[in-house]
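Write out the 3D structure for:
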Amino acid sequence: MPVRQYSPTSPGRRNASGYSFAEITKKEPEKSLTVALRKRGGRNDNGRITTRHRGGGAKRRYRIIDFKRSLQGVDGKVVAIEYDPNRTARIALVQYQTGVRAYILAPVGLSVGDTVRNGADADIRPGNALPMDSIPVGTTIHAIELRPGQGAALVRSAGTAAQLMAKEGGYVTIRLPSGEMRRVLANCMAVIGQVGNVEHDQLRLGKAGRTRHLGRRPVVRGSAMTPRDHPHGGGEGKAPVGHPGPKTKWGRPAYGVKTRKPKKASDRLIVRRRETR
């Protein structure tokens, strides 16, 4: 899916690029598979901001994705490839032989007219979902479950893929896009192939307005604030932060400090930590 460079008709367009949408075959979503998505501005049920720098953004509806692949043993035909404003990947509209329609993540190589199937009897083809004990070692996979029946939790972003490395004692070992090697229960589901829209990382927004369209508000540096607003604030000129290390707005260590719990239960399932870049 090529990313097209815009003509420099204005300063904002000069360094911007966008999608060509060449693979999109249907503009309007399936109404029965969408729900209203209300803006919360980063606020919780009490009205307090729990996630900063959120607000505004283009109006959108949420597309219900079948991450569980619950309808098994039935063939489905890809009816359309659609754009989803809620994620970086493209989605595929699938109609099963029973008449049920569902959205799935569109992998590389899946096109309109192709057949997808869920279950242990499915072929090893892009878009098919199988338990990982039925997938050959070395296969590229995505949309991986962490617990059986939970639904896909890992490897769902555009262009990402994991690899099935080994099988042993009811567990499989997978290599995640970060380089982490992790063990997962062998009866968890995964989808064959790589997530589509591979060139998404080459997209350049080009101007602040396009960031606002995504619902992201500006971020102010702590050193530009006053001491009452941030630990880094105050001082004459461009003063240093005045601490042994940088801190968050609430005074906790930030930037590079490990936040993972030292005795997290899933530590025993991690064979090798992710690669540091």
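The chain has a mean pLDDT of 95.
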